[in-house]
């Protein structure tokens, strides 16, 4: 048994017409983690997820889920994963409880072992169990899709843009449930365009661009790669023009007394920046800093790749 929940080796996909969607992608998703899979639109994320789901055939390479190769053991591989797609897909004329019961039947879950009401309670839809699915709001439909993906208790859950179009309160409820699932041993793979969401939730993040893997690191290490730092300094008098210094990458006057300074934290520290301000004859009244975040790293990596 491998320690990886998902293992991908040299995975490639070329569509008819020559479009290269994936190009030799290799990475493992460690068991028990919340793993972020990020990339710009058209980067290849959905193709990769559809290969894992058995909806798209790979051109080359291998992929396994919970130790089961998707080509050699497709039934076991599919039983080991639940996928929540970007698109909301279910029959609008079934109720939520019927939707989950039918899905459980498709996976061969015996009636005595089905957890349909338990899952609806977990995603805050128990009071809608017998309402037609078409009457649910967009956020409720997304939560129903998460419950639908969990009917066969898979050890791996893939969430493809699960909070698109969901309001802040419902998004928080969804993430609370995902954290509960993860704490119970479910490995979660997340794609999202909300980078602050990935930074808060994910233990590790892989970034794909133009079908190639460009990084795969623990989230904190990835955020730490951003070398630019910004400090806002309020001084004790009006400034007509910002002072120049070799330790500043950029300095901008914001208002009459606030200087916004960008510097490279791998070459200069904040003390040197403040000393340079004082050396210009200005007294420091207040200082605030902006730490680099995942968005900064994401943009620098994907622009550099492009």
UniProtKB/TrEMBL annotation:
Pfam families reported for this sequence: ABC_tran (PF00005)
GO molecular function: ATP binding; ATP hydrolysis activity
Keywords: ATP-binding, Nucleotide-binding, Transport
Superkingdom: Bacteria
The UniProt record lists the keyword Cytoplasm: no
Matches recorded under InterPro entries: AAA+_ATPase, ABC_transporter-like_ATP-bd, ABC_transporter-like_CS, ABC_transporter_ATP-binding, P-loop_NTPase
Domain ABC transporter: from-to ranges: 6-235
SUPFAM superfamilies (UniProt xref): P-loop containing nucleoside triphosphate hydrolases
The keyword Zinc-finger appears for this protein: no
PROSITE patterns noted in UniProt: ABC_TRANSPORTER_1 (PS00211), ABC_TRANSPORTER_2 (PS50893)
Official protein name in the record: ABC-2 type transport system ATP-binding protein
